[in-house]
Specification:
It is a single chain. The chain has 220 residues and is mostly beta strands. The protein has a single domain (58-217), classed as Methylamine Dehydrogenase, Chain H. Helices cover 2% and strands 40% of the residues. The protein contains 1 helix and 19 strands. It has one helix spanning 149-153, and strands at residues 2-3, 22-25, 28-32, 36-37, 43-44, 47-49, 56-57, 69-72, 75-80, 83-87, 93-98, 110-116, 121-126, 131-136, 166-170, 175-180, 186-191, 197-201, 206-211. The strands form 6 sheets. A 4-stranded antiparallel beta sheet has the order 8-9-10-11, with no helix packed on it. It is globular.
């Protein structure tokens, strides 16, 4: 699956999709076309979205129901009731996380945990919590600032350790399925409520696009 931004007008596109497969968001066209063959011969669902500034490839199927656990580089993380438990290579618990918002509130079940090898992190989505988490396994990870932008730029916010810490991205709704672009900081997720797609940028910790596909262009 590809998300890309066209510098030309929709009428000049060379890969225009079938009629009826266009949605819109704030005057920006979102189009979809049938599966095309990849270099390996597997079919990919290609979606061209005039929403982001760089191309991003997501695996086929682009959005899959992931298990609420993942393992990589000797680490394993799994959901246990209202907690996420991270274990090291020795099997011992390295850290536990309560699956609540920063401000508190009820704990949410975990919808998916996916490893991002390039960033050395786990990305976590929830069924009831409108946040996307990134937990870094990099000892040199930058500190986390949960305050406003001007807070940490002026030295007002109190940083938290980035290593094994939670970088939170607030969302308009919880994401029940997610897919990662292995070469970038982009995450594509499907909302739990209406099935809308949300594109999240992990570096800026912000949802940068959201759109809904026409029924005949829905990702399966």
């Amino acid at each position: 699956m590809v998300i890309s931004r066209s510098q030309s007008t929709p009428s000049s596109r060379t890969d225009r999709p079938p009629s009826g497969s266009t949605a819109s968001r704030g005057g920006q066209a979102v189009t979809a076309r049938p599966p095309v063959s990849s270099s390996g011969g597997r079919a990919r669902q290609a979606i061209a979205a005039v929403l982001v500034g760089a191309a991003a490839w997501f695996p086929s199927p682009p959005l899959h129901a992931a298990e609420p656990s993942a393992a990589a580089d000797g680490w394993r993380i799994e959901a246990q009731g209202p907690r996420l438990v991270l274990r090291g290579a020795d099997g011992r618990v390295a850290k536990e996380y309560t699956t609540t918002a920063l401000e508190g509130g009820p704990a949410s079940p975990v919808a998916a945990v996916v490893h991002q090898p390039r960033r050395r992190s786990f990305v976590v989505a929830f069924t009831q919590l409108a946040e996307l988490w990134e937990i870094s396994l990099d000892p040199a990870a930058d500190p986390i600032h949960d305050g406003l932008v001007h807070d940490y730029r002026m030295g007002e916010a109190i940083p938290k350790p980035g290593y094994l810490g939670v970088r939170r991205t607030k969302l308009p709704e919880p994401l029940c399925t997610i897919a990662l672009d292995a070469a970038s900081a982009l995450v594509l997720g499907r909302g739990c409520a209406g099935g809308a797609l949300h594109l999240v940028q992990l570096d800026v910790r912000r949802r940068i696009a959201g759109f809904v596909l026409a029924p005949e262009a829905a990702v399966r």
